[in-house]
Amino acid sequence: MNVAKPILELVAITKQFGSFVALKGVDIEIAPGSVTCIVGPSGSGKSTLLRTINGLEEIDGGAVFFKGEMIGQTVRGQHRVPVSSKQARLQKLNFGMVFQTFNLFPNRTVMENVTLAPITVRGHSRKSARAAALQLLERVGLEHKKDRYPNELSGGQQQRVAIARALAMEPEILLFDEPTSALDPELVGEVLAVIKSLAEQGSTMLIVTHEMAFAQDVADEVVMMADGEVIERGSPKQVVHNSSHQRAREFFSSVVAS
What we know:
single chain; 2 domains; globular; 9 helices; alpha/beta; four-stranded antiparallel sheet; Rossmann fold
């Protein structure tokens, strides 16, 4: 039986902010086409870990590998050195990030928000970028809002535009940092439905979430973090309902409906 090589490997990732150690040697492997949900209490390092993957936070130790290539650094002689700024930009294109807040340009229409980066960064023509954007907006159910501005949309609609914008860059891995935490409760479902549809289509995704029912429904693997460490990982059923770690059992008993 052939086992697919990981598309993403996090090896002994450490990160400090002053004297505070946010990540303490985190190891995670992500299989291509899989959905991994990272859960845990506030302050456990989940969002920081996500931000180290695409270079929004520099790591202090360990390494991130995408398809076997070290991200952000290279080895020369006996030493690690940063990659060139050009190489760093190219490496970041492998990852699409969807944040807690939508970060849309308020003075640009939905269409302009989705097409801006493909045109300016990827070098796509305006015509091809618009055609691709229309397809993506259709996927997230917002093609009819293409000429609207962000302030004319609900929070859920803005987050769906943000997802379309991330997809427009054709990333190989999608990173979601608490994508529903800024939404009113009645708007959460529409965003989770879009993410679930992406999972069903085989997108590789790493999702930091507090939506436990969603994580159990969509994830191939759940990673539980606490105090900057991975303390449990495995299938949703195993991690959520049969944790071996006492801290994990306490966490899930408080956040998962019985």
